[in-house]
Design brief:
94 residues, mainly beta, four-stranded antiparallel sheet, three-stranded mixed sheet, 9% helix
């Protein structure tokens, strides 16, 4: 693709780490585009400035477990840390 546009295209990789012992599903969004559920590692993402969000669908709405605006350099290997929060009392009683 870079040969067609004359632009140099570079990639970076991302690792996602929950920094708590709490378990739970989470969704990854990059630049508001859904990338998947419970992703631990993305091997190839276009480098550049990216908005990265980790969102949980909780019983009473969405919870943002993490968000970062990052300038990802070519061949970077970046670790994104986030925290899944414990269930609230009202969530336990559902």
């Amino acid at each position: 693709m870079g040969e067609l546009s004359g632009e140099k295209i570079d990639f970076t990789s991302l690792a996602f780490t929950n920094m708590t012992d709490e378990k739970g599903d989470y969704n990854i969004y990059i630049d508001n585009i859904y990338f998947g559920k419970n992703i631990d590692y993305l091997e190839s993402l276009l480098s550049g400035t990216r908005n990265i969000k980790i969102i949980q669908d909780r019983p009473f709405g969405k919870y943002k477990a993490g968000e970062i605006n990052a300038h990802l350099l070519p061949q970077d290997r970046v670790s994104i840390e986030f925290k899944i929060q414990p269930l609230l009392d009202k969530e336990k009683n559902i």
